[in-house]
Amino acid sequence: MAKQTLSKKNTHIQHTNGKGVQQEQTEVFDDNLLPDASEIAALAVLDPTILEWLKSRAEKEQDFRHQAFNKRSDLIDRNVATENNINILGLCFAFLIIMGGMAFSTYLITLGQVLTGTIFSGLTIVYAAALFIKGRKTETAKQE
Q: Can you give the pTM of this predicted structure?
């Protein structure tokens, strides 16, 4: 592995005055676990055990990177599972609300209030459809 560069650019323009701001941040980091061979040779002259120490440090660094990656993967998996559970719970509650609205509409119709029961039933269906459409648009906006 070699040195890597991470560059971020941000541009913000205000239309009222025609002024703009542009920011650029560049970060260079060394992703090597071990120093160059010439550096190791120079260090070995000073301390003959430096090679074993460097190897152990590289192994510890690699283990840490694997642990960090595994933790990130676990967090993402738990987040996805939680979102799925919330979606299922939302669908269940929506179903219960729709069924409750239909049951109340049926009750109103059996009491002889046909117009009120029909309007309530229609509003329940329209409200549920609007909620599903709004939820779908929110999901689509999140993915973009």
A: 0.53
